[in-house]
């Protein structure tokens, strides 16, 4: 076969439609921003509409239900149910972040056009990540989602803390990427391919070699930074605290989910056969991440920092099912547990940040004391925050309980001692976590209002929308978990 | 009517309070009277439904699960919305349905600071949903969810409306219980994965009915799984040494919270043993029983000794709960029908009597603004009716024959004379003797309490103060409880007749396992 015999592969535009719509929206935002000064207020709306519009092809693809290859015969970019479920999650989470940002950006004298442009680009990277089944595609998706996020983290450019946040995030991110690339090159060197499915086949014949182990470990470590797993979490608290709060929400939910999607894809599609390498590694990562995250969170007095550590701990719970995912009978349960957790976690955490942003509009602070006595002057806001906090703690009947339950189920399902020990560890950690979540609840409900300022908090429509979406998700998901569970059950890879 | 109740009765009892709470959320906070009325109507509606359920209950087959509704819920994990009641659940359902409206009535003019009846009553109603739901759930996950639903309202009730140490007490209560439930849910999952049907295929179910006497689990594993449930339920009861949250929670909670906590929440734990732990893992229960009984009698003696050392009336009553729940656990640990019947009687009696004692403590606090025993005295002179009611409840609590308390304690002791097959007779007889000593202590601390508070002459500091005696809301909320204490005391079959067959079904399971060995 000569090179000249190249024929253009067939492109499935239906499968690619969400990415195309996002790309188009991105350009529209750029053009509107360039064309007129006055229409800046529209940018948030356009971005929101674009994100929702991208949901439409996802729904039609879901109804259709067949797994599609975007380039015919090429396993590098796949649109299956797993990809669809996570793309939907990224788009909805992105929409909520746009709602969170609307007033924050408009009132804060920030560059609006560029903000939404970068936000949408990052979401586009995530949407690509959900379909990527190839080392290079994964790498490109990772960079597309990360580079805008580095810039967004420094958006409050007159605040040194924000500069520190972005720089730290950038340096750590680049470092992690370098490690990951090295891992990928090792894997490529051994297998001679970048397509995960072929890597999987090739690795089974190669068997366990130190160099393969090294490659897998390096690849996973790269993404462990992204999901802020201990000991690769050190950037998270400072970045979260310094970044604009809507971006903190975005990093702690969307970007983290992006990292998990990459880990899941790499492990399930590429390295599944080598579970003796990644299972113990995940066990250690999960156990460390949840324990350290929770213990350090106990000492925080700033709510955003507290949530940074809380989201570290939550990442530990999400990693736990991977520690037992190596057997065929546990693989699917572990996968759906993680997907369910990611979906519910997004609702809980975005909701909590929506409240933090709303409260900060009045108090101009994210210190724990600024929540004191909130119940006195903002009972509705207090109630929703209470829902999110105790959902994160995993108290029924709020959605978090089912997410935790699925983690328990996946780890116990393995039937091994290691699995049960991890389940008990998750249980003990949930108790520790309750302590700091309850501390915020305690400040809101049981402490007196500082300096007696009882003027009500004004909640702008965009934030009301974000709060409503998250509250409904957290309650419905807890009372009738079947809805979320269906999503988790659907999101399967064909293994073996 | 019967048909309607058959399908909807239990679900109505569970969810009516939530509807009431939802309505109250919409009503503005300033409409305090309206909030009280809505809460009262809602809780009375639950009482009416529960009485309706009791009227049409088939008392000839109390071991049979009745009013069963089985509806799909979370299919992915094969967990279903299964509710139903038998003779073990019915008395506790009625107790819950009775106590909550009484608490609402009592609240009519007793508001702990910082007032806010709207939030307080909403929490009360959410609590009711959780409690009723736990007593009717027949699916482990459903049971777990309801079991946990009570945590948040009680946490806020203690934390917002409680006494000076309320923050500490509230979080302690929450953390202890959550720790127990985390282990409990892991145990439930182990049952889900390990229990097998007769052909050896895994059951993969959370239905308590199907899991009854679960097969196919190695004995050593059973012991661990039972241990998880033991800690989950034991913390709730509370069994010594997990009891330390209780005195704090009780003392700091507002009166209404203490009443609900004592009268119902503690029973969720003991009910869990009778409904879940023992019938599902009877073999493990036999191995655990001597240890549970040991902790129970330690609780009896330890609780009583602590009572003798208390200087605060409410804290004393709280510790008496530890002792009384010790009797209940001793009855359960004998694994005989006699003992478990006594235990359920003990739960009901303790619910009525200790609920009353906390009501009285609340009323004393409201009048004197203190519960320090040494500052009180001569209550019979200051508020004679209140004093006599205290005397009556103290008598009931110490187990005076003819009142309800007696039928909880005495048969429990009697049952330990002859525990279930396979349990060491001498050991349980020792427990019996120790427990009997506990009743003497109980008489001691309760009579001493009565003597110091009701008898004698008032302290000088109260000179010139006028104290109003029992008022209308207090009468309304107390009379039903007082009447029941007497009625059950005179005619205990009122309860025993309901529970007996259902309890026999449980003890037969244990017996069958013992016989098979």
Give a verbal description of the structure.
The complex is a heterodimer of chains A (496) and B (517). By secondary structure, chain A is mainly alpha-helical. Chain A has a domain at 274-496. Chain A is built from 19 helices and 2 strands. A two-stranded antiparallel ribbon of chain A has the order 1-2. In chain A, a hairpin with an 8-residue loop joins strand 1 and strand 2. The radius of gyration of chain A is 22 Å and the shape is globular. In chain B, strands 1-2 form a two-stranded antiparallel ribbon. In chain B, strand 1 and strand 2 form a beta hairpin. The model of chain B has no long low-confidence stretch (mean pLDDT 92). The chains are: A mainly alpha (496), B mainly alpha (517). Chain A binds chain B through residues 336, 375, 379, 386, 390, 393, 395-397, 401-402, 405, 408-409, 412-413, 415, 420, 423-424, 426-428, 430-431, 434-435, 438, 442, 445-446, 480-482, 485-486, 488-489, and chain B through 29, 73-77, 119, 141, 144-145, 148-149, 151-152, 155-156, 159-160, 166-167, 170-171, 174-175, 178-179, 182-183, 185-186, 189-190, 192-193.
Walk me through the topology.
The complex is a heterodimer of chains A (496) and B (517).
Chain A: H1 13-35, H2 40-64, E1 68-69, E2 78-79, H3 81-107, H4 112-131, H5 135-153, H6 160-191, H7 196-206, H8 210-226, H9 235-242, H10 245-270, H11 275-297, H12 303-319, H13 328-363, H14 374-377, H15 379-393, H16 400-413, H17 417-446, H18 461-479, H19 482-490
Antiparallel strand pairs in A: 1-2
Chain B: H1 2-26, H2 32-55, E1 66-74, E2 79-85, H3 89-107, H4 117-136, H5 140-149, H6 151-161, H7 166-194, H8 208-211, H9 219-236, H10 245-252, H11 255-280, H12 282-309, H13 313-333, H14 337-368, H15 379-382, H16 384-397, H17 404-417, H18 425-454, H19 472-490, H20 493-516
Antiparallel strand pairs in B: 1-2
């Amino acid at each position: 076969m000569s090179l000249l015999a190249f024929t253009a592969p067939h492109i499935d535009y239906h499968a690619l439609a969400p990415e195309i719509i996002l790309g188009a929206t991105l350009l529209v935002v750029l053009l509107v921003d360039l064309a007129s000064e006055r229409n800046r207020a529209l940018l948030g709306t356009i971005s929101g509409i674009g994100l929702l519009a991208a949901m439409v092809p996802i729904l039609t693809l879901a109804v259709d239900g067949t797994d599609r290859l975007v380039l015919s015969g090429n396993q590098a970019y796949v649109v299956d149910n797993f990809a669809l479920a996570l793309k939907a999650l990224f788009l909805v989470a992105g929409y909520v972040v746009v709602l969170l940002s609307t007033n924050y950006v408009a009132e804060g004298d920030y560059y609006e056009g560029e903000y939404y442009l970068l936000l949408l680009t990052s979401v586009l990277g995530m949407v690509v990540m959900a379909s990527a089944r190839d080392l290079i595609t994964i790498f490109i998706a990772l960079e597309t989602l990360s580079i805008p996020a580095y810039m967004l983290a420094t958006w409050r450019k007159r605040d040194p803390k924000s500069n520190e946040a972005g720089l730290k995030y950038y340096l750590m991110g680049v470092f992690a990427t370098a490690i990951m690339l090295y891992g990928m090159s090792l894997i490529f060197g051994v297998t001679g391919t970048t397509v995960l499915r072929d890597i999987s086949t090739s690795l089974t014949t190669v068997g366990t070699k130190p160099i393969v182990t090294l490659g897998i470990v390096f690849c996973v470590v790269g993404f462990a930074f992204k999901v802020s797993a201990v000991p690769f979490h050190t950037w998270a608290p400072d970045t979260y605290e310094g970044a604009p709060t809507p971006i903190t929400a975005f990093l702690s939910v969307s970007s983290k989910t992006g990292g998990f999607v990459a880990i899941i894809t790499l492990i399930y599609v590429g390295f599944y056969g080598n579970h003796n390498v990644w299972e113990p590694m995940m066990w250690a990562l999960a156990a460390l991440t949840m324990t350290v995250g929770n213990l350090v969170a106990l000492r925080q007095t700033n709510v955003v920092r507290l949530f940074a550590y809380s989201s570290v701990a939550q990442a530990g719970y999400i990693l736990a099912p991977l520690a037992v995912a190596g057997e065929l009978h546990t693989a699917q349960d572990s996968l759906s547990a993680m997907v369910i957790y990611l979906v519910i976690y997004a609702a809980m955490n975005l909701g909590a940040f929506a409240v933090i942003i709303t409260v900060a509009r009045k108090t101009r602070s994210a210190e724990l004391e600024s929540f004191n006595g909130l119940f006195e002057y903002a009972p509705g806001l207090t109630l929703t925050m209470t829902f999110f906090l105790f959902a994160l703690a995993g108290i029924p009947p709020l959605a978090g309980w089912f997410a935790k339950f699925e983690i328990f189920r996946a780890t116990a399902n393995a039937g091994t001692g290691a699995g049960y020990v991890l389940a008990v560890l998750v249980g003990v950690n949930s108790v520790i976590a309750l302590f700091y979540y309850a501390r915020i609840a305690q400040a809101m409900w049981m402490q007196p209002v500082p300096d007696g300022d009882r003027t009500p908090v004004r909640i702008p429509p965009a934030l009301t929308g974000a709060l409503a979406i998250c509250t409904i998700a957290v309650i419905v998901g807890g009372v009738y978990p079947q809805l979320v569970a269906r999503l988790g059950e659907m999101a399967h890879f064909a293994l073996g | 009517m019967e048909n309607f109740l058959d399908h909807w009765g239990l679900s109505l009892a569970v969810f009516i309070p939530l509807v009431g709470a939802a309505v109250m959320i919409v009503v503005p906070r300033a409409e305090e009277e309206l909030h009280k009325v809505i809460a009262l109507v809602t809780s009375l509606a639950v009482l009416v439904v529960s009485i309706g359920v009791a009227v049409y209950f088939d008392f000839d087959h109390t071991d049979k699960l009745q009013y069963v509704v089985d509806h799909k819920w979370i299919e992915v994990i094969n967990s279903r919305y299964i509710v139903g009641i038998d003779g073990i659940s019915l008395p506790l359902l009625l107790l819950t349905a009775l106590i909550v409206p009484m608490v609402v009535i009592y609240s009519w003019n007793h508001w702990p600071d910082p007032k806010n009846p709207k939030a307080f009553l909403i929490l009360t109603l959410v609590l009711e949903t959780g409690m009723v739901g736990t007593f009717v759930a027949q699916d482990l996950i459903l049971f777990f969810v309801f079991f946990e639903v009570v945590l948040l309202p009680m946490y806020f009730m203690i934390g917002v409306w409680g006494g000076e140490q309320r923050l500490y007490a509230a979080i302690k209560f929450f953390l202890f219980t959550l720790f127990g439930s985390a282990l409990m849910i892991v145990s439930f999952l182990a049952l889900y994965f390990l229990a097998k049907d007769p052909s050896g295929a895994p059951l993969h179910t959370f239905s308590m009915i199907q899991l009854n006497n679960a097969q196919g689990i190695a004995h050593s594993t059973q012991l661990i799984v039972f241990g998880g449930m033991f800690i989950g339920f034991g913390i709730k009861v509370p069994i010594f040494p997990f009891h330390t949250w209780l005195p704090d929670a009780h003392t700091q909670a507002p009166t209404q919270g203490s009443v609900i906590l004592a009268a119902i929440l503690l029973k969720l734990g003991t009910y869990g043993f009778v409904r879940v732990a023992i019938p599902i893992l009877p073999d493990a229960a036999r191995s655990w029983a001597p240890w549970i009984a040991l902790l129970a009698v330690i609780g009896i003696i330890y609780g009583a000794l602590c009572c003798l050392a208390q200087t605060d009336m409410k804290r004393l009553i709280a510790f008496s709960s530890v002792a009384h729940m010790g009797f209940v656990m001793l009855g359960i640990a004998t694994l005989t029908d006699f003992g478990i019947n006594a235990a359920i009687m003990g739960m009901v009696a303790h619910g009525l009597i200790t609920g009353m004692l906390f009501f009285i403590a609340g009323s004393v606090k409201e009048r004197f603004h203190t519960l320090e025993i040494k500052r009180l005295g001569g209550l019979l002179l200051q508020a004679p009716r209140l004093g006599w009611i205290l005397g009556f409840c103290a008598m009931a609590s110490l187990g005076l024959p003819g009142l309800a308390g007696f039928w909880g304690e005495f048969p429990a002791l009697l049952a330990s004379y002859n525990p279930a097959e396979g349990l060491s007779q001498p050991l349980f007889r020792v427990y019996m003797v120790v427990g009997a000593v506990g009743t003497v202590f109980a008489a001691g601390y309760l009579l001493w309490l009565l003597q110091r508070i009701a008898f004698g002459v008032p302290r000088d500091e109260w000179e010139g103060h006028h104290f109003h005696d029992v008022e209308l809301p207090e009468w309304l909320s107390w009379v039903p409880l007082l009447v029941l204490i007497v009625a059950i005391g005179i005619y205990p079959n009122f309860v025993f007749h309901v529970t007996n067959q259902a309890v026999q079904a449980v003890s037969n399971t244990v017996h069958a396992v013992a016989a098979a060995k």
